[in-house]
């Protein structure tokens, strides 16, 4: 039983390290808010930018949004992705 508990805990830690990335072209406000350094205001600004520019072509475009520094963009690189598919509007 003790081995089973240890195995379950280790699998939980491994799966936590493989957290899903957030797609800038389809993410909702809530999904964007889960990113480090992104609150509701920045999440809404990201979605507004996405709508105005018909989606992101790369994550580096985040630095064009007021309030998002290049330093923050560098920190987010591992947590975000950009799909080439259809973009979605703001979802809560």
Account of the 3D structure:
This protein is mainly α and 92 residues long. It is built from four helices and two strands; from the N terminus they run H-E-H-H-H-E. It has a two-stranded parallel sheet with strand order 1-2. The longest helix has 16 residues, at 2-17.
Q: What would the keywords be for this entry?
A:
DNA polymerase, domain 1; 92 residues; 45% helix; mainly alpha; two-stranded parallel sheet
Q: How many structural domains? A: 1
Biggest sheet, spatial arrangement of strands:
1-2
What is the tally of beta strands? 2
**Tell me about the biggest sheet?**
2 strands, parallel
How would the global form be characterised? globular
- What fold name goes in the CATH topology slot? DNA polymerase, domain 1
Strand content: under 5%
Distance between the termini: 42 Å
Number of helices, counting only DSSP H or I runs of 4 residues or more? 4
Under the CATH scheme, which architecture would be assigned? Orthogonal Bundle
- Using the CA coordinates, give the radius of gyration: 16 Å
Output the structural class.
Answer: mainly alpha
- Give the helix level as a range of percent: 40-55%
Poorly predicted sequence stretches spanning 5 or more consecutive residues:
13-18
Using the coordinates above, name the CATH class: Mainly Alpha
């Amino acid at each position: 039983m003790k081995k089973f508990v240890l195995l379950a805990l280790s699998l939980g830690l491994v799966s936590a390290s493989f957290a899903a990335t957030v797609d800038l072209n389809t993410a909702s406000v809530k999904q964007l808010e889960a990113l480090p350094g992104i609150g509701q205001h920045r999440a809404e600004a990201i979605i507004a930018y996405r709508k105005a520019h018909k989606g992101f072509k790369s994550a580096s475009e985040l630095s064009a949004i007021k309030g998002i520094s290049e330093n923050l963009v560098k920190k987010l690189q591992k947590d975000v992705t950009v799909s080439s598919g259809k973009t979605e509007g703001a979802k809560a």
